[in-house]
């Protein structure tokens, strides 16, 4: 899942070397924290959050059949 998030986000940003995805796994959920360069935050979020919503939709659709919920936080 981490590779999927990086594959989606890196072409969108001007500083792909600053894209960092960290994983925090809890009992009933998995949280992916996406950090990008401050200049690229607007490109990842998009107008009215459309790009962020699309990224989240893809990530949620690609989840495994585990009983854990998946969340994507954009820092």
TrEMBL record:
One of its GO terms (biological process) is cell wall organization. It comes from the Bacteria. Keywords: Cell shape, Cell wall biogenesis/degradation, Chaperone, Cytoplasm, RNA-binding. One of its GO terms (cellular component) is cytoplasm. Pfam families: KH_KhpA-B. InterPro entries: KH_dom-like_a/b, KH_sf_prok-type, KhpA. It is found in: Cytoplasm. One of its GO terms (molecular function) is RNA binding. SUPFAM superfamilies: Prokaryotic type KH domain (KH-domain type II) (SSF54814). The keyword Disulfide bond does not apply. Gene3D superfamilies: 3.30.300.20. Belongs to the KhpA RNA-binding protein family. PANTHER family: RNA-BINDING PROTEIN KHPA, UPF0109 PROTEIN SCO5592. A probable RNA chaperone. Forms a complex with KhpB which binds to cellular RNA and controls its expression. Plays a role in peptidoglycan (PG) homeostasis and cell length regulation. Forms a complex with KhpB. HAMAP family: KhpA (MF_00088). This is RNA-binding protein KhpA. It comes from Compostibacillus humi. The lineage of its organism: Bacteria, Bacillati, Bacillota, Bacilli, Bacillales. The gene is khpA.
